[in-house]
Amino acid sequence: MKSEPNFNLSHMNHRNTLTLPFLILLPQILLAQSEIGNINKKAVLNSVDKHRQELISISRNIWELAETAMNEFQSAKVLADYAELHGFKILRGVAGIPTAFIAEYGAGKPIIGVLGEYDALPGLSQKAQPFKEVLKEGAPGHGCGHNLLGTAGLGAAVAIKELIVSGKISGTIRYYGTPAEETIVGKVLLAQAGLFDDLSVCLDWHPDEENKANMQSTQAAAEFAISFHGKSSHAAVDPWNGRSALDAAELFTIGMNFLREHVKPSVRMHYVFTKAGDVPNVVPQEASVLLWIRDAKQSGVLEVMDRMKEIASGAALMAGVDYEIALNKGVYELLVNETGAKVLQENMKLIGPITYSSEELDFAYKVMKAYEMEDKGINGAIKPLESTAPYPDGGSTDVGDVSHIVPVIALRATIAPFEAPWHSWAIVASSGMSIGQKGMLFAAKTLGITMVDLFENKKLLQEIQNEFIKRKGKEEWKAMLPDSQPALR
Ligand SMILES: [Zn+2]
Fold first, then answer.
1. What spacing in Å lies between the alpha carbon of 261 and ligand 1's midpoint?
2. Which of 105, 116, 249, 444 could be a cystine partner for 287, CB 3.0 to 4.6 Å?
3. Do 76 and 95 form a contact (C-beta atoms < 8 A)?
4. Ligand 1 centre from 423 Cα, in Å?
5. Residue 412 — φ and ψ, nearest 5°?
6. Which domains does the chain have, with CATH numbers?
């Protein structure tokens, strides 16, 4: 997955030879920005620059709040209030989720959407400094940079709103405040409520270690809770009267592990025991397993699911117990849109690479040193458009479901040192300071000027939609959710 950066900025004192490209590229960046001929794109860039301080303070505010999935009450409010201040129509608590909202401006077609996330990860509290130190004991932290993610999309939406107000473009801009990405369920619930159905195109971005237009899919995934119900008895006095639910759970996981030999290489299965009895001298009456199945496509997940059901049934039969299988949640794989990615790519080039100060490079150097990893600087270059790999890397996202309903164009932008471990204190630290904030502003600008293309160019919009229809094929999207699951909300 990782490749060498083609624009490697390293700490000046440690890699003197690599400071030269930085100096050479600087005039080119200024040149590139001044060459933007489209006045609406210029207006978007000016708007993001004008709101720069506000966007930085919003991202920092959400970083400090660091609220986990479905608890993002204040973070959602910060973003929704900002959109409201800018005249957007706000729908709070959409899809029955208190921390979800929609902010919309304009009327008619096209309707361009942009996704925002703002949930943090448990236990990752960290100060915005290049060595490990907890900000608030036991608190969550933004180890995936979602404080930046949610803010950049809104920055782009505000810039487009200003163009609609001035009559330069017409249509609707709609920002989605989507909670609970880390538990891969927020957008699935919004999708189930039909909230993406009328979009022309949806834009998305995610913090990364590279600037690129996303050409890679993600894994479809589903989470199942498998429960076994037996009979308790004294484990030594009358074990023959007992039926162990734990025996069934163990036999089930043995079966799943044997299944690994007979699934496609793209399949991943992982589980934990969530209940396994209390004490050894009681035959366990209840046992349960939480299982994830992933594959490159949702249809692959369903195939493995069918085998899993048979294995659960066999395990229960062997142990003489009853069993239940519940689907907790699931997501589809991401459908790539190459036509859209190419537009993003050209727009990234218009903006030019992100450059870093010696203080920022020093920050990156110290982070990597603290991790005992090689310092490879911060990669602010624009990565050339990749081809789509046959199988996605590990990992799943609820953006996948949106991409089966409307075309999704996805950006990645650098917010952290190159090759720094993700979902870690290093990402929390970078997300709370200027390295992350630069990536956030770069994303806001790229998304904003890409939206200009989508509003101005009907033919392009049609081509993006044509590719979406072709990639989706005949498959019908259906949310992988239980009929009622109040615990998720
Ligand atoms: Zn993330």
1. 31
2. 249
3. no
4. 8
5. -125, 140
6. 8-217+333-472 (3.40.630.10), 220-330 (3.30.70.360)
